[in-house]
Specification:
Blueprint: H1 15-21, E1 29-33, E2 39-43, H2 54-58, H3 68-76
Antiparallel strand pairs: 1-2
């Protein structure tokens, strides 16, 4: 399988290879060129710590079940 280099120097790693290496967004990779001029890509196992947004941290934590109209009334200050 072949891929194309973008103007930014990026390539897409085919899904079957990402799956084989266990790559996820934020995974660390090591690139080397062997004596035959082939590029070798290794998963370094030191996955980058993914920074969780403040919204992701609290998603699903509310213990109050708001109805949309009640929440909008509260936020808008309507009576």
């Amino acid at each position: 399988m072949s891929t194309t280099l973008t103007v930014k120097g990026q390539v897409t790693i085919p899904k079957h290879i990402r799956d084989e290496l266990g790559l996820k967004p934020g995974s660390r990779l090591d690139f080397t060129v062997n004596r035959d001029g082939e590029i070798v890509v290794r998963h370094t196992e030191k996955a980058a710590k993914t920074v969780q947004s403040r919204f992701d941290k609290v998603r699903g934590k509310a213990d109050i079940k708001w109805r949309t109209d009640a929440l909008m009334t509260l936020l808008r200050g309507e009576s």
